[in-house]
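note to self: dont lose this again. the chain is below, predicted strucutre after it. 453 aa total, dont forget to put it in the shared folder this time
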Amino acid sequence: MDFLGFMAESTARHLWTVSLQVTVLVAVIWIVDRLSFRASSLFRYWLWLIVLARLCIPVNLDIPGGIRWIVKYAAHNGILTDNGFPGRAWMSDSFGAVAFPFIPESSFPAHWYTSAGFVWMAVCGMVAVSIVFRIYHIRKFSGTWIRAGRTDLCALLDTLRHSLRVRQTVSLYSFEDEAAAVPAVIGIMKPRILLPRVIVETWELTDIEPVLLHELAHIKRFDLMVNCLQMIVQAVYFFHPLVWFVNRRLRYFREELCDDTAVRYLVSGRKHYTMSMLRVMEETCRMPVPGYIGIGFSERNSTISERIKRIMRKDYTPYTSLTLLSVFMLFIVTAVSFTLSCASAGKESVKIEGIVLARTDGSPGQEMVLKQNYPNPVNTSTTFIFSLPKSGHTALAVYDVKGNEIAVLVDKELSEGEYTVKWNVGKLKSGVYFYRLKSGSGEIVKKMTVISS
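---
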């Protein structure tokens, strides 16, 4: 149970930090997106892919430009001391770098993180079971799919596939029930285009061509793989409304990009393409294809009118590639947004000054040890010494007699060894306090007294 509690707390702390970074990142990308309303859909799609890329990185970022990196750099060059003023360089830590004031991710009590972690695990489990059940249902339903028998339609699909330079072999299927769904594409490794029966049996080739081009564009752009990543990210960060917002923006621009590709390769022009879009909506099911199945000609019917208006504008231009300027701008936006998001996550939520963590030359024993702080009673500052028999996530925090968390002195991964932590108590009120060392499944609590001057 201690291990599960440790995992729940660590997971919650990680998700909290990433959520803060993503919030700032989304704010920056949204501003750039609004300012780039005249830019191509491809550029704006890649803007939102920056957020998805960050969500797919399973670690907290600490890159140059973040507030933590600035503190490390200042300490290494002797700019800061343990009191935050110019002077001698700080002591070295266990990684051969300089020790720096550990900035806690938040001021919430540890048990809050543990509870939140258990809730997250439970909800993620239910979401995973739901997705597996739905996929099983779709696989069972796939027995009703019929391979398209029209030779002219299969020949058209093969011709369009070569025109778009889609290397994968694409199969064409129809639904036995014409009201089953709108046109869609499923399968990452073996893509299949699904068309309602009414389209396969009654439409002319010239009317089906825009639909096939749109679905082939999804395959050419590897949209199914991106959609799979979106599903995973949304399941992990189900609690974050901005993650849902980002996924909606990605799906919106993804459909516009496939529209652009289809219009560019369609000989009959954009007016014919929009007419096919309207006909699909009139003659097939109005329910969009669920994300866990695949991606379809119309994932959200509410965007159809916007897409048609965009295509029929006089200044409409179907962009299918990024310019060098767009690539440069994306690089700049990525660097700036990641820097700002990492800096925001590094801001203090508990104002603690003069915390110095350093590794000593002492050898760790077979058990975790936390020595009594000195001096005790504490007036202005005190030092804690502890040793770890093995590496792991370590937390050292101070609490009052009511159990309220006063300060987090250490909350990071540490290797085995002996460490010292010097803490300037500042204006902490006089009284009795407890400090707890927690690493892995081990936990030690000791008492100290503070006498403020």
